[in-house]
Amino acid sequence: MTRSAGNLPHRYPRMTDTIPAPSTIEQTESPLAFKEDLGAFRLALRSWIERTVPKDWRERHCGGTAEEFARFQRWWFDQLRAARLANSHWPVEWGGEGLSLAHRIVIFEEMARAQAPSAEMFVISLYHLPATLFAHGTAAQRERFLNGVVEQGEVWAQGFSEPNAGSDLASLRTRAERKTIDGRDVYVVNGQKTWSSFGMFADWYLLLARTDLTARKQAGISYFIMDMRAPGVTVRPIRQITGESEFAEVFLDNVEIPAENLIGKENEGWSIAQSTLAAERGLIIFEAVERMAIAFEREVEMGRGTWMKDTAYLREFSALYVKMKSIRLLVRRMLKEVERDPHMGGSETATYIKLGFAVLLQAYNEFMLRVSGFDAQFEKPAIRSAGHHTANRFVDYLSSYSWTISGGSNEIMRNVVAERILGLPRG
Length: 427
Description:
The protein has 12 helices and 8 strands. The chain is α+β, with helices and mostly antiparallel strands. The strands form 2 sheets. A 4-stranded mixed sheet has the order 1-4-5-8. Strands 2-3-7-6 form a 4-stranded antiparallel sheet, with no helix packed on it. Strand 6 and strand 7 form a beta hairpin. Helix 4 runs parallel beside helix 8. The longest helix is centred in the C-terminal third of the chain and has 30 residues. It is globular.
């Protein structure tokens, strides 16, 4: 398999030279020991974060290579696994802790408050994969692949978008043909995928491919689990405007996927994909909004005596602050909707949150870049593993524009609101 530039190894050594070795549960008791009392759980979690996260991790991970980023992400995921926090939102019957919505809110509030690292390389592994397999996977698939995340820390990427099939995902052209090769029942896949988050580090791939060329666009798509180390897979990082490579493009040349790695039934991949995409409407956006809320509070403290003396700036920031609080409330409302109906799929609230948060993130970062003056525009390293709050104003401003594209461009989402929610005629 072809890896990214620099021949990145598939597995990275643990970062024992710069980060303390993973603590055992005996040394660092899991906060879950106190989960029966929400207040005690919060305090135990806060204490665990203080003991576990190095105080200077942000300084030590300012800049750095892709390899260093991946090592640190794996280290952080090891800590979460050791404390049974990584997949605590999964149902108990599938290896999780079945934590309530209130517990999950506490976890993200405390992680954001402490500016703990974000496990961004494992988002697909912890949310998209289980959301898909819980609803549509076989028992064998759940046993193998969910355990692979929890026990081995396997990294997953998502193969949905293509160069000519982004917001119009149903136009995808990657082709999967079922064949018998040397007595094996396989699908042979050819095509190209793009915008696969952390695809250069992934072990496995959630893949959408066309299996029926004669059916209407949505009806001819199937959903597969693909080994990223399979022959014929080529991964190339995409260099972004920030200078970093969060995404990758993936080329598939006669890649063989065992038939047992088909999720659900053939040609039903489009409806199954809605379970995957629903994961983006829950805890993922909740974490992003919580980290933004904490960032706003920090700006208030740091801005006193400087730009906040300017009445015009203060008025503009206050308007952004009110929008942030509104979106924060909407996210909690949406999570309650999901808790009542975990298989709700699309949600009007989720659509409004996606649109509102993307625009707010851009406006917030543009404002902070502007009030920070020319010094903020000089090139300097950004903190990695910090989500969209890297302490580099210019990088945060540039990267904020990805939110108006990912998960469906804002232009497409506005059409969805107009046609499906408001019932307006198609333009």
